[in-house]
Amino acid sequence: MPFAFCTREKLPWTQFAESAEDGPTTRFCQQLAKKHNMVIISPILERDSVHGDILANTAVVISNDGVVLGKSRKNHIPRVGDFNESTYYMEGNTGHRVFQTQFGRIAINICFGRHHPLNWLMYGINGAEIVFNPSATVGALSEPMWPIEARNAAIANSYFTAAINRVGTEHYEHEFTSGDGKPAHKDFGHFYGSSYVAAPDASRTPGLSRTRDGLLVAEIDLNLCRQIRDKWCFQMTSRLDMYAEELPKVIKPDFKPNVVHENSH
Asked: 68, 41, 46: which is closest to 135 by C-alpha?
């Protein structure tokens, strides 16, 4: 399915929405996961018929036994440039789930969530050893950030990250604007690929191509997560108690920033 969520044209794209639990994509991936003894993360446009047919940007996790372990919805929805995805779906409500698989504890930080450090943090607090970031992002908007964010998250949270982006350019029949005063256009720009895997010790693999589909195979040692925690003690020194005390105050209507001013005479 084309990445059409930002054109504001719901049809025919919403007709591709499906159940995360037993939709055609999930059933197909279940067969593949069991056949090849692999865990599959399957991003879909989810239709939740139990809750009023709402749509969600969702990743389904399927075990190597072909069992649906669960799903993780996109926590942060972009409102930047052409990416106004709230036309289709709103913020997810599955929190920061971590899935215990035969090969390790994994989590999925979908697309725009990579720009939010607290999002990465919570997957780590819940015990993730590998956090996947399936994305569709274009060069003019985010490419300078791409080599940094997932790698920094791996360092800060002492886990592995997989930064995954598609390639190509899509053109649409009808023009749309970005709401920035510039002329209407029929494409988002180039999806620049460059997928890579980063480790908690700050190392990373080379990136895949900017222009061609590719397959990245990386061998990782999950013992490195604990080894780096013991070395740098980021978790031990994180002071979650201090932030837990301060953050509830921030969301109160009467919150006042803790700024010290010089006394005037």
From this structure: 41
pLDDT tens track for 3-39: 555 666 777 888 999 999 999 999 999 999 999 999 9
Question: Which of 132, 136, 122, 113 shows the shortest CA–CA distance to 45?
Answer: 136
**Tokens representing 22?**
């037993």
Tens digit of pLDDT for each residue in 175-227? 888 777 889 888 888 999 999 999 999 999 999 999 999 999 999 999 999 99
Q: Which residues contact 66 (CB under 8 A, 6 or more apart)?
A: 30, 31, 33, 34
CA distances in angstroms from 166 to 135, 192, 210, 221, 239, listed in the order given: 7, 7, 9, 26, 37
Residue 264 burial (C-beta neighbours within 10 Å; 0-12, 13-18, 19+): exposed
Integer Cα distance of 52 and 227 in angstroms: 46
